[in-house]
Amino acid sequence: MNGRLRALRDGCRELAVELRELALPVDAEPHAEERLRASPALRLLRTLGTPRHRRADEVPRWAETFADSRLTRVVANIELARGDVGVLNACAAPSLAGFTVDALGDQSQQDWFYDELARHGLWTFFGMTEPDHGSDATAMRTRLTPRDSGGFLLRGAKRYVANAARGGIGVVFARTGPTPLSVRAVLLRRPAPGLTGTPLEMLGLRGACLGEMTFDDVEVPGERLLGRHLPASRRGLWGANRAFGVVRLQIAAQALGAGYAIRDQVCALRPGWDGHRTVTARLDAARELLLDLAAEADANPDDRRPPSLAKLHTAALAVEVGRWAESALPPGSLVEHPLLEKWCRDVMAFEFMDGTSHILRLTVAPDAAPPREGP
């Protein structure tokens, strides 16, 4: 942790205090957009989530490096999630859609995407997971069919999409043929005939506003097809994997930050108690591992294993810390302390964000033999 990273960490730690003030109101009314738009903290995070050369607003000196690398994003997200991870995920930032546009979009597509965000303050969406095929992107059934008159028609459905109902611009993946190379990504702008989004009932991480989207012959102009300028091997899933490489590390950092928040709350409710030492040691060890994996991913951005290892470990640890909190406090403590109860719900959602544990294990060890049956 050099001086710039420590400054970023300390600045995000202060910003986290503002996020926590919104935690319970956002959990109660996650679709109340006026509250989210009025938050200075979320406005700053929206700017920080935008590539440095495209930022329309000035940022504090400590925050200038926020989006410079995977490591800086990890350092920031750990501290921000200690404020509240639900509010952090309610931020209207480029997010996963932005990372995909950065990886697959040509100059005109990137300009259009970021101009729309800056002009209208839109939430973004990213459609990959499908109702019947989960995280297996190669099994998707959403179709992108060329039209004789030019452009494409998009038909299918996506589920567990952040901002599915309120998102104004985003990226959706579909296939034009039977092979993995036929999976392509398109830019969509709402409203659009045939495009609908419906929120899903959520118990945890309600600020993310997960939902499902359906596409009934949605017209997609040819200039909204991402990756047109790239080789066939880098037009679709390669870009998604590049984006996941960044976001999985952010999700891992958020899971770890939520675990720290739970630990902090338990310690505050039991001052002087040393029963947290094992949990604290595990959280600290996970932080060191996460920082190492982020630096490794910066050195080799096409290696999918470091981000997968990071999320696999910290998502499971955060759930364990939540269960530990329930046993470390007297009966009824979660009812008496609604913020702690919310965090114990929130950590359950990380399992389903940007790749389930099963998919991540396949990424880490793709050639591992299946378990033997019988004696």
Detailed description of the structure:
The protein is an alpha+beta fold. The protein has three domains: 3-92, no CATH class; 98-234, Beta Barrel (Butyryl-CoA Dehydrogenase, subunit A, domain 2); 237-364, Butyryl-CoA Dehydrogenase, subunit A, domain 3. 49% of the residues lie in helices and 13% in strands. It is built from 14 helices and seven strands. The strands form two sheets. It has a four-stranded antiparallel β-sheet with strand order 2-3-7-6, with no helix packed on it. The protein has a three-stranded mixed β-sheet with strand order 1-4-5, covered by helices on one side. β2 and β3 form a beta hairpin. α9 packs antiparallel against α13 (338-346), α10 (277-299) packs antiparallel against α11 and α11 (305-328) crosses α14. It is globular, with a radius of gyration of 21 Å. The chain starts with a helix and ends in an 11-residue tail after the last helix.
Provide a quick synopsis of the model.
The protein has 375 residues and is of the alpha+beta class.
Helix segment tally: 14
Classification by helices and strands: alpha+beta
Number of domains: 3
Low-confidence stretches: none
The level-1 CATH class of the largest domain: Mainly Beta
Q: What number is the mean pLDDT?
A: 92
CATH superfamily of the largest domain, called what? Answer: Butyryl-CoA Dehydrogenase, subunit A, domain 2
- What CATH architecture of the largest domain do you see? Beta Barrel
Please summarize the sheet with the most strands.
4 strands, antiparallel
Strand order of the largest sheet: 2-3-7-6
The H-and-E topology, N to C, reads as HHHHHHHHEEEEEEEHHHHHH
- Number of distinct beta strands: 7
The global form is globular
Strand composition percent: 5-15%
Radius of gyration: 21 Å
